[in-house]
Amino acid sequence: MDSPDTPLRLTDRKRAAILQAAIAEFRSDGYEATSMDRIAARAGVSKRTVYNHFVSKEALFTAILDGLMQTSEAGFDKPYRADEPLRLQLLALLDAKMRLLHEPEFQDLARVAIAAGALSPDLARTIVEQLGKREAGVAVWVRDAAADGRIETGDPLFAALQLESLIKGFAFWPQIAMGQPPLSETEQRRVLEGAVDLFLARYAA
């Protein structure tokens, strides 16, 4: 006889299959060309099952982005510590961000998201909100360091966005928008250290 949690496990397996099928479809054919019918067929489930898990293609796509970032950003929520050097903390915090930006799957989905967002302002807003939630770790760190008097800023969110931009200007936008190759390990470290040093030169108390 099946255990009481067997249906839950089956549901989880179907959800995982849908997500993997959707990732493959979005990466290969883009957002507009991907349909819930094709996702269902690839996942081996009915279209009704897909909609039972995700109310729309937009919801499915944002769930994929969210799940990818949860997996890739292990350690990205490192809290501020008053007893540790600022530079070492920031380098550790942003190292996870750099790893995420170099995930091939994330890069492919980012390109899909940008192309889809250009055609759908509503989807673009949803994606920006989703990404903003995942990038809150840096803003929280800056806010806490400012509250402790070690960072001088009246606008922690603005300062955090500046720091993010210093990294993405080298390790995201050239690769996503201009087809530049990923940064080497040496280049990644140079970008991280340069961004952190510039940030601290401006904001360290």
From TrEMBL:
Residues 12-72 form the HTH tetR-type domain. SUPFAM superfamilies: Homeodomain-like, Tetracyclin repressor-like, C-terminal domain. One of its GO terms (molecular function) is transcription cis-regulatory region binding. It comes from the Bacteria. Gene3D superfamilies: Homeodomain-like, Tetracycline Repressor, domain 2. Residues 35-54 bind DNA. Keywords: DNA-binding, Repressor, Transcription, Transcription regulation. Pfam families: TetR_C_7 (PF14246), TetR_N (PF00440). This is Transcriptional regulator, TetR family.
